[in-house]
Amino acid sequence: MRAESEFILSKQLLRSGTSIGANVQEATAAESRKDFIHKMSIASKEARETHYWLQLIHHSGQRYAGLAECLTEVNHIINIITKIVKTAKSRM
User: Are 46 and 16 in contact (CB under 8 A)?
Assistant: First the structure.
């Protein structure tokens, strides 16, 4: 992978990865259940985008230490946030 491509992928990964936590934090201060669900849904989308960028890096053929663990962790995060959103929706 070329340095420019690595920079683009890492920039996107950083943006989406940090957005997960920011949206979860916003959700904890939500003004209503609907607002909470909305913000957690955005966190879920960002987690899925993060998974996408990690998959691109994985399929690029480059080997990065810890990449497999990152993919596993982001899958856990997606599952947790999805469960939170489903539970919150069921309580509406």
Answer: yes
Report yes or no: 27 and 41 within 8 Å, Cβ to Cβ. no
Task: Give the span between the Cα atoms of 49 and 40, in whole angstroms.
Answer: 14
Q: Let me know if 56 is exposed, middle or buried by CB neighbors in 10 A (0-12, 13-18, 19+).
A: middle
Number of neighbouring beta carbons within 10 Å of residue 50: 25
**Region label for 66, one of left (φ > 0), alpha (ψ between -120 and 50) or beta (otherwise):** left
* pLDDT digit string, tens, across residues 41-74: 999 999 999 999 999 988 887 778 899 999 999 9
Does the pTM surpass 0.85? The reply is: yes
